[in-house]
Amino acid sequence: QLQLVESGGGLVQAGGSLRLSxxxxxxxxxxxxxxxxxxxxxxxxxxxxxxxxxxYSTNYADSVKGRFTISRDHAKNTVYLQMNSLKPEATxxxxxxxxxxxxxxxxxxxxxxxxxxxxxxVTVSS
Length: 126
Fold this sequence. Notes:
seven-stranded mixed sheet, four-stranded antiparallel sheet, 0% helix
């Protein structure tokens, strides 16, 4: 399993942008499908975006399509979540995660991810 560390959260006004980073340990990073989830107050942790191993496929929650972009820098063992046109309802703790096994496909389900970071807080003010 990978060790994951998120960064880049903070306070931003509605309409603004943030880029979250998730640095992974391990030489097999490129073989893992990676995902971003968020946990808002009073709600369950929810899928945000995923990027397949090999970077051939991405998936997004309907609520973020067209505004958020997931990407990966293999040289830095880092996956990113670029968040534009942020809305107050995006306020949450954001987690990156890696699928249970190398070469697993994209999934929307928390149970399919075996490695999780500690989370980074994003707060969007209105």
